[in-house]
Amino acid sequence: MLSISVNRRKESPVIQNPREPQTFSLKFKRAEDYPIDLYYLMDLSYSMKDDLENVKSLGTALMLEMEKITSDFRIGFGSFVEKTVMPYISTTPAKLRNPCTGDQNCTSPFSYKNVLSLTSEGNKFNELVGKQHISGNLDSPEGGFDAIMQVAVCGEQIGWRNVTRLLVFSTDAGFHFAGDGKLGGIVLPNDGKCHLENNVYTMSHYYDYPSIAHLVQKLSENNIQTIFAVTEEFQAVYKELKNLIPKSAVGTLSSNSSNVIQLIIDAYNSLSSEVILENTKLPKGVTISYKSFCKNGVNGTQEEGRKCSNISIGDEVIFEINITANECPKKEQNETIKIKPLGFTEELEINLQFICECQCQSEGEPNSPACHAGNGTFECGACRCNEGRIGRLCECSTDEVNSEDMDAYCRRENSTEICSNNGECICGQCVCKKRENTNEVYSGKYCECDNFNCDRSNGLICGGNGICKCRVCECFPNFTGSACDCSLDTAPCMASNGQICNGRGTCECGTCNCTDPKFQGPTCEMCQTCVGVCAEHKDCVQCRAFDKGEKKETCSQECMHFNMTRVESRDKLPQPGQPDPLSHCKEKDVDDCWFYFTYSVNSNGEANVHVVETPECPSGPDIIPIVAGVVAGIVLIGLALLLIWKLLMIIHDRREFAKFEKEKMNAKWDTQENPIYKSPINNFKNPNYGRKAGL
């Protein structure tokens, strides 16, 4: 038995019977203006150089944004690089002073440094972060897990309050975890304790990186919710890590951290809108189960019963918690269970008081006449025998009873088993064993019967359709079979025409067993290899209705197995919806004319055919339009070919003319004079020409 009391509640402990769950409700309501502590933990390896510039003004900007959510907000800052041993960093003196190459001015490498404890002064955040410098290391994964562990366990140095605690982990690389320290000769497991001196982690060279499970434990113990702000390249890695760390979120960080404020706001809204309950370790024999009643009628059970999502400020959700004691502890001491929502400091403490004796035992009647003349105490409706007495009513003495004589009364005829190996022979009577499941019982004079070893169907004893009595199923009405798995209900076998299995089979255990192997389906309605009804009867309908077709000569011998009715048009044919199964047919006769008929079979097995008396024959082709179309087509094709030929000739002529013009231009003589050329023409001038006469 179990008594439960819950602290901070004005209710009396409730006593429950063994294995009967104790149920109570827990209400959760998201508060408005709840205080927030946010610690920004940043990777200061060289690849984060451009990110640091944007983070330097984060304090005041984030303060302004968070004022929209809460009036009580504090922010802190820490940085990490890597363990200060080879091969994670270079240990040469020059590299220890400045791990960066070229003229870059970098600070000495370090594991983790608490730059600013949590404060409400945003300007102080900007001032101290503005003085930080990038450092460097050799390998790509960083030592972020060392930093997360110290942030989680160094509550006094960080300044955590009992409020919402957010840890923003910003990086553009992967992470080292437990076991990686062996590369640097570090084999001692992380002890999960605070080792900050002057706000610097001093034992990175001594302790290995923490494991993921170790981090989960410490983050949960200290109610810290983690936001992983990582670049797109490492999204997949940190999403897998998020699945292992409860109450954590992953956001995509831009290449220079310009979107970090919006990332933090979105992640906080996502985390604060979900509540997940967890409990401390349960005492042996105690089980706990949850059922959630969330917004919009969404309910959850088992693991989903521990959480609710999409909770807005002022929303209230209810969790129904069941605690069951399956056994009593050896020392009968009281136990305590604590239940709390992940990420919150508030918790519910449940006190368990185990009552392993019934109250009626204190009211027992010693030496009661009901126990064979006072040989026992009658309590709780049964006899508790005095020392030296046995039997249901304490009727036997252990000194007088010869066990061999008594065992004979506990064996079935022709059997050597005492009480069928399912009980003990006490005072010549079988006392059957008790089972862990109190619903499972041995019974019978020799404990030969039970109610749990009957045949099963669908994983249920007697298929859930009967009662197991002495290993034999007694079926409920309309069920039969060794496991009551055979239904006598014929409704599943009823075809649409009102016949059981369409008259082609028998209904066995609610399923049609088709007698004709050609037919199959739930009601023997399908035949994959059968000729269709229409094709099967078309020749007989053709010969009887129109006196033609392949069976015209043998129509009176082969085609008189159905009743035929002629109708004027297709509209007069029987339509679907009548009780008899009906097939509508459209077939071609020997003259390529279409004729229509229906075929049905009534409940008496009589076949009825209704046929349209006038076939639909297609009219012959109209020759004139066909000939005209062919001629027109030939003419059009000829004209098209002629036009194409003409176009090609024009293009050819133009190309030839252009070629001629080009050659003509190239054929002109050079007009420059030949220096050795001498003209054949000589000019002579008469010296006396033009003089006056008489001189």
* Rg, Cα atoms, Å: 50 Å
Strand order of the largest sheet: 2-1-18-17-12-15
Q: Estimate what percentage of residues fall within beta strands.
A: 25-35%
Q: Report the biggest beta sheet as strand number plus sense, adding barrel if it closes.
A: 6 strands, antiparallel
Distance between the termini: 175 Å
Mean pLDDT: 82
Low-confidence stretches: 1-17
Transmembrane segments: 623-645
Domain Integrin beta subunit cytoplasmic: 646-692
Domain Integrin beta subunit tail: 534-622
GO molecular function: C-X3-C chemokine binding; collagen binding involved in cell-matrix adhesion; fibronectin binding; integrin binding; laminin binding; metal ion binding; protein kinase binding
Question: Would you write up a description of this structure?
Answer:
A hairpin with a 2-residue loop joins strand 33 (505-508) and strand 34. The longest helix has 44 residues, at 623-666. By secondary structure, the protein is α+β, with helices and mostly antiparallel strands. Residues 534-622 form the Integrin beta subunit tail domain. One of its GO terms (cellular component) is focal adhesion. This is Integrin beta. Residues 646-692 form the Integrin beta subunit cytoplasmic domain.
Short description:
With 695 residues, the protein is an alpha+beta fold. 21% of the residues lie in helices and 27% in strands. It contains 13 helices and 40 strands.
